[in-house]
What we know:
Elements: H1 22-36, E1 40-47, E2 50-58, H2 59-74, H3 87-108, E3 124-128, E4 141-144, H4 150-158, H5 165-172, H6 175-180, H7 183-197, E5 200-213, E6 218-228, E7 231-242, E8 245-256, H8 265-280, H9 284-289, H10 293-297, H11 301-314, E9 319-327, E10 332-340, E11 345-353, E12 360-368, E13 373-374
Amino acid sequence: MEDDSDHGGDAPAGGWQRVPAGHEIAALVAGLVPFAITMSSSSSRTVNGAVVASQYRDWVAVGGGAVAAGLGLVALSLLKRTAPAQRVARIALICGLVALGGGQILRGFGVIGAGAEGRSAGPGIATRVPGPPLTPPGPDATGLAPIDRSAEARAVLAVWNAPDAAATIHAAAHPQFRASVELDELKIFHDDFTAVMGPFVEIVGSVGSRRQTKDGKVEELVAGEAMFGKGLAAYEVVLTQDGATLRLLNLKLEAPRALNPAPDPQQARTAARAAAGALLAADYPTFDALSLPRIRGGRTPADTTRLQELVATLGGGVRLEIARDEPCGEIQHCVDYHAVGRRGAATMTLKVSAPLGRWRVNHWSFELDGQKKVTP
């Protein structure tokens, strides 16, 4: 029998409950197990290349957290049977168990911890360098035994902070990449992403897969998370052989929504209006500065002459009337103008996109009413 004088007060029938009790120990174990054992899964949904929803679950953390928090609350019933000298300790233990359980539940649902970083941090914008589409496993590709290519993926990003990073990556890439991604376009992507995420620090996690397409090409994919100056970003590097050399076939980086908020539609309208004004002035240098490189790269001298003739046909004094102004994709905005001059009228269509915050023209057309349109 315990000595009441050691605890203060009269012991209840059956004696004082020791601290910690058996179920409190069990609660502590349940709350700590998820740190050692995980059973996690994640998924995401994309629309037009943008991640619009993502989900992370670790059911070991959810279950362990629920048990820890539940048993912690049950321990409240032991307070009356706890020696006065030990009640503060029991209250602290109960609070700790509930906090531990609640934290594990939040970890399990991806609110905090690993599930809250990178791709699982919430909706984010997927900014993919234009290039050949990735071939998913299925009828067009055969899965092969993976080979660890994390060192090669790290080498691609290792030059990210160099002044000539875009040129270096472009020059070392597979010919198929260089044919589909202009150097100027890669420079814009690099500069915009660096402005959002800061300098590259290190790859912190990667998984690999390997597949053979129906034309016999073997593609090696490395995906994971990379630390940049402002936080974690999801990355994907696709490599393929060019003779005896493994070269970059495609690159994808995703900035978390918290660091790359949804672009402002009003800025899209401002960019479209500025581009329309440059076209009406036949001012290609200004228009080029507002456009993606592939727009100016596809223009011929004849296009410039044709635009000047079209603007002259309108007869000056042109006013712009908005015919359409609406989003036409997750990160794209479409504006149609009716341009009315003293001697004629035309319809001007502009599409602007902002994968990383800055709106740029990615398509345009200019058509005299009843005549063939001008477009690069």
